[in-house]
Write a structure and sequence with these properties.
alpha+beta; 2 domains; seven-stranded antiparallel beta sheet; 7 strands; 32% helix
């Protein structure tokens, strides 16, 4: 349990924090502040949606749109795109500004369209072998399956806008 806790919160907490989580009622209070990371090996052949190739495709699509938006004091005028249910923001690589002419973008922040507090998933694809999904401000205790599912839904929605729709064909002789 202690080793798992260290991986989830980056090893910043000692054994006392683990005891706190195990106390009745404490887990619910801490769930709103914990950041959870899921790592996905990008070379997995069975991974169909959350891939580095799709993230690069999404990055190029957002940059091509040319729209920028400020979504926090830290990230101003960053490339952005909205789908029906999600907002996508490209984040500059560490230490760079959000100007596409001056920055490279290997992180995408997904904001979920919720009526309560904002939910975010950040996908870092700087490493060519491992993708890192960070779930911030989770509404409740999230499972890996829930985090993956929410990211897959968001990526499928934007990929549907990017990928060309097959042209309608009429049967021969009509």
């Amino acid at each position: 349990m202690y080793g798992l806790w260290q991986r989830v919160v980056g090893g910043a907490c000692g054994r006392a924090a683990v005891v706190l989580v195990l106390l009745g009622g404490a887990a619910g209070a801490l769930a709103a502040t914990v950041t959870v990371q899921v790592r996905i090996r990008s070379e997995k052949e069975d991974e169909k949606v959350i891939t580095r190739a799709h993230l690069l495709q999404i990055r190029e699509f957002i940059l091509k749109q040319g729209r920028t938006e400020t979504f926090s004091a830290m990230y101003r005028n960053n490339p952005a795109h909205h789908t029906k249910s999600f907002a996508f923001f490209l984040l500059p690589d560490s230490g760079e500004e959000g100007d596409p002419a001056k920055a490279d973008f290997h992180r995408v922040m997904i904001q979920f369209d919720t009526t309560g507090p904002s939910e975010y998933r950040e996908i870092d694809f700087r490493d060519e072998t491992v993708l890192v999904i960070t779930a911030s401000r989770p509404a409740d205790d999230l499972t890996v399956k829930q985090i993956r599912g929410s990211v897959e839904n968001a990526l499928q929605e934007i990929l549907a806008e990017i990928e060309p729709k097959p042209a309608a064909t009429t049967p021969a002789g009509r």
